[in-house]
Amino acid sequence: MIDPHEPLESQVARQAKIIDALMRRANRQHEIGSTAYGAFQSAIALQAQVWAKTRDLELTTDALRHARHDSERMRKNLADALAALDGGVALFTGGRLEVCNDNFQRLLPDISELLRPGLEIGACLSAMAESAHLVSVEGSFDAALAQARRGRAGASVVSLVIELTGDRWYQINLQRTSDENIVLLLTEMTAILRRNRSEKESLIDRQADYLQAVFENMTSGVCTFSPEGAVMMYNQQFRQLLGLPYTVLQKGVELARILDFVALHGLITEAAEHDIAHWLDRLERQGRLRRRLRHASGRMLDLHAHRLPDGGVLLELKDVTLETRATVMLENRVIERTAELTRANAQLRLQFEEKARVEEELRLAKERAEAAVSSKTRFLAAASHDLLQPINAAKLLIATLLDAAADTRFAPTVERLEGSFTSIEQLLHSLLDISRLESADKALTPSELCLGTLMRSVWEDQIPVAQRRGVRLDVVPSMVFVRSDPIYLLRSIQNLVVNALQYTPEGGRVLVGCRRRGGRIELQVWDTGIGISRKDQKRIFEEFARADNVPLGSGVGLGLSIVDRTCRQLGHHVRVRSKPGAGSVFSIEMEVVEGRRAEPEEGCERTPAMAYEMDHIVLLVENDPDVLFAFSQKLEQWGASVLAARSISEALGHVRDMGMPPDIILADYQLDHGETGDVAIAEIRRECGAQVPAIMITANRGNGLMKKGAAQGFSVLTKPVQLARLRSLIDWKVRWQSPEG
């Protein structure tokens, strides 16, 4: 019933009301009580409640008395503390004056009667601004009050400086102590201002002495003149440099008299009367003057004259005799050196003309050489397709003849024919690779590729060669991704494996694998061949260079040169370790592309699985009749049914006649009349209404065609075609990429 948080006066009043209500209730119960005993019991209970409430009332009254006493004591302590302060202090609570000390009240006697508790702070500051004892204010009372109210409590202090009568100075600080309270602090600063004023006056009095002392210690001669032309200050160096007597150079002497004395006695050879008049006129017009003068004693002087802000003149003299002599000597030496340089320049001009003539001859020779190289490159690039077409046809025919001549007396002859043709093919590839590498910015297009796929491709290409030579070829694919050019990296690995097979005798072994080196991987080709001596290891990567122990007729020495040039342009590192009679290890080190994972491939078995019968319908699109015939013969030898076409229209005619899609499409890229293989594949698929598996066979080795194949869903094989890869790829695409698969 009683809120302990209410003021003590409210609690006491509420308790009195409660006691009065209880007394009235007791009286009513006594009047209407049924028995005297019940009334007696009610009176006793009521008396106990009255005593308890009376006791609570006494305790509350005592607490209120103590609180009032503490409040008065704290107020008195605050007043005593404020009175003990040297400056004036006034505390405003809720924007009204709560308390101030005597110093604050005595500051402005004519408004002291207004400084009573409850005075609004704005009215207080307005009264101070209108006081007769206030002389000036640096700032505004209203602006200071507004800034103090906007400031953050406890941190923002706004200051004003006021001047009172009697040359008294005070600083007023307004500080907001909380959301409701503002404190005004008055600090007298009269002594500080008077001391600063005294020091300033003393400094001004001693300025002339200081300035004179500075003048006397200057190395230059200095003299100042008043606006009327009278000497004000000078140093002895000025008098000595001009050679003036004491009687002429004194404070108050006119400038005209000094100049007349100089002209009369010839102290300055250039100081004729008309010259001096010209100097003064220029000084008057431009405000400054600079002259180099020769003194009668032979000294050289620099004269600087400047107009001072008050209209006076400052003259400065410097002795530059030594500098002038040094300048003259330097000028003489410059003249001598100029003559020498002129003679040397003439000789250099002759040499330069000779050099220019030689450079022009070298430039013409370089242009002719570049033109020859460019012509060769263009020729090889343009002829690559025409060269590879008959090579491809011949390779297919030889492969067909080799299978047909098996177990006959012609088999050794055909095998030798194939070996000779393989050498021609390798030499042609080397020449084309060198041609493309000469313009590496166009030939090399690095991308992220799986190293294991290239290693398996090399194994499929070279396992027949290894079997014929009686050499064991093992490849352990490493399914990691590297950044390289897929075509040229494949050629580099092929060259290393071909060399290893070529120089390993029958019964030997060639092993291809990889080792991790931190963030890099090293592809290694091991062999048990004839080995390479240490002196030959430094030159085998040069063009047309071969080791001394290499038998005649085993190559022209281009393979390793192409590997080295390719890897250098791709940022790979090629190394070799070898020992004669024990074998060699060639390695290519590349950076690994982290975060890419390839699906594990089947291992490289001893013999590729190629013994199955190819029971497929193959639509072959090839414009070259020889290549078309050779391809058809080989595919039919494998068991396939071949539909041969030399154009897109002829291929579409085969599809319409057959009434069903073929199992796979083999298409050359460059056809007649501007037709291309990718268009042929797209047209045949559209006619069939199915995504027929397709392989593009081309001499184009750029990555652009490979990207197009990945986008349109066809594989790319380069000419001359490796038959082992072609057969396995046809089987894989028919099994897994056919619409029915």
TrEMBL record:
Its EC number is 2.7.13.3. GO terms for molecular function: histidine phosphotransfer kinase activity; phosphorelay sensor kinase activity. It catalyses: ATP + protein L-histidine = ADP + protein N-phospho-L-histidine. Residues 382-594 form the Histidine kinase domain. InterPro entries: CheY-like_superfamily, HATPase_C_sf, HATPase_dom, His_kinase_dom, HisK_dim/P_dom, HisK_dim/P_sf, PAS-like_dom_sf, Sig_transdc_His_kin-like_C. Keywords: Coiled coil, Kinase, Phosphoprotein, Transferase. One of its GO terms (cellular component) is plasma membrane. It comes from the Bacteria. The keyword Phosphoprotein applies. PANTHER family: HISTIDINE KINASE, TWO-COMPONENT HISTIDINE PROTEIN KINASE. The lineage of its organism: Bacteria, Pseudomonadati, Pseudomonadota, Alphaproteobacteria, Rhodobacterales. Transmembrane segments: none annotated. Pfam families: HATPase_c (PF02518), HisKA (PF00512), PAS_7 (PF12860), Response_reg (PF00072). Residues 341-375 form a coiled coil. This is histidine kinase. Residues 617-734 form the Response regulatory domain. The modification 4-aspartylphosphate is found at residue 668.
